Amino acid sequence: MKSIFVSAALVAAADALIARDSTCCFHLTASGGPGGIVGQLSDGQNRIGQGMLILYIVCLPGAQYCIDSKGGLTDQSGRGCILTPPTTQFQCDQGASPTDGFSVSCDGTLSFKGNTEFKSCPTGDNGGYNIYTTAPAGQGGCVSVKLSADSCKSGCPAPAPAPAPAPKTCPAALTGTYEYPHLIVPVDSKQPDKAFGTQYNGTVSGSVSSLFNFDIPTSDNGKTCSLVFLFPQKQNLETSSFAFSGTGGIDFAMLKGPASSSTTYNNRPGVGTGYGVTKVAPGNSYTIATFPCPGGSAIGFDLSTSDDTMLSYFQDYNPSPIGLYITVC
Ligand SMILES: *[C@@H]1O[C@H](CO)[C@@H](O)[C@H](O)[C@H]1NC(C)=O
C-alpha cells in the first residue's frame, strides 16, 4: 500500500511539474554581500562564491532557473526550487514541487513575495554561501544580498522626465554682468503734480517713492535677469552714503512702463507686477525678483514704503555697491 501511495505522489508531482508552463529561464547573480554568480552543488543547494568548484563539477557558468506563471522556479535539472523548512534555505530538490511566489522585476531583481532581500550565510565549505529568505537563528555571518536575473526582465519604464529646473537666480552682487539704473525719479503723493526730475539718490520715505529705469540691451535677450537690492554697511562705502531709519519695509514693484524726467506722482506708470514688501537692513543683499531679460527694452521699477521707513541713498556701484541693480546671467 505504502509504495503505491508513494508512486502516486510522485506521479502527481511529475504532473504538477509538467502542468506548469516554464516560460522563461535565467541565471542569477548576487550583489550586496559576497557577490557573484549563483551556482549549485550537485545536490541542488544554491550557492554563492563557489563558482570555480561548480564550474569544475557541473561545467555550468551558473545554475539556470525557469520561472512559471505562479512564480515557481525549476532548475536546469528539472528540480523544483523550494525554501526548505525550517531554515528557508533556497535549494532545488529532485521531485519537489516548486515554492510559488518568486518574481523577476522589470530591472531583473528577483523577489520572493515582494521582498527583494535575501540572506547569504557562510557555509564554511570552500568559501561558499547558502541563500535564505530569513537568516537562520544561530547562524552567524549572514549578510543581505540582492539577486539579479540576467533574463526574464520586462524592462523598466523610462523614469519620468526631471521637472523643469527652477529658474536660476543671478547673483545678488555685482560679480558678473549687471545693469544699473539710467534714471532715478522721486515722486511725492503730497506734491502729486511736481516733477522732481532725475536724481542720484534713491529716496523712500512716507509720501515719497522712487522710480528706477533700466535699459536692458538686446544682447541680454535669452538671459536671466534678477532685480537685486544691495544695502551694505555704511563703513563699507567709499564714495556713497545713506540715511536710514525705521522698520525698513520697502515695497518693490515692476511698472508697466519706464519713467521719464517729467514723471510726477499723478502721471507715473501703473504697477505691472508687485513683488511685495522686503524688509531691508544695512549689511544685506536682496534678490527681489528673477525674470527673463526683456532685451532691447526699458523697464521701470517703483520703491515705496507704507511704514515708518526713511531711506535716502546715493546709488553707486563703487565699493561697496549700494542700491537697485539688475544682475544678468
Ligand atoms: C543723497 O543721500 C545722501 C546720503 O543719505 C545725502 O547725504 C544727500 O544729501 C542726498 N542727496 C539729496 C540730493 O537728497
UniProtKB/TrEMBL annotation:
<dbReference type="Pfam" id="PF22799">
    <property type="entry name" value="PIR1-like_C"/>
</dbReference>
<dbReference type="InterPro" id="IPR018620">
    <property type="entry name" value="Ubiquitin3-bd_protein_But2_C"/>
</dbReference>
<protein>
    <submittedName>
        <fullName>Uncharacterized protein</fullName>
    </submittedName>
</protein>
<dbReference type="InterPro" id="IPR054508">
    <property type="entry name" value="PIR1-like_C"/>
</dbReference>
<dbReference type="Pfam" id="PF09792">
    <property type="entry name" value="But2"/>
</dbReference>
<feature type="signal peptide">
    <location>
        <begin position="1"/>
        <end position="16"/>
    </location>
</feature>
<feature type="domain" description="Cell wall mannoprotein PIR1-like C-terminal">
    <location>
        <begin position="71"/>
        <end position="143"/>
    </location>
</feature>
<feature type="domain" description="Ubiquitin 3 binding protein But2 C-terminal">
    <location>
        <begin position="179"/>
        <end position="319"/>
    </location>
</feature>
<keyword id="KW-0732">Signal</keyword>
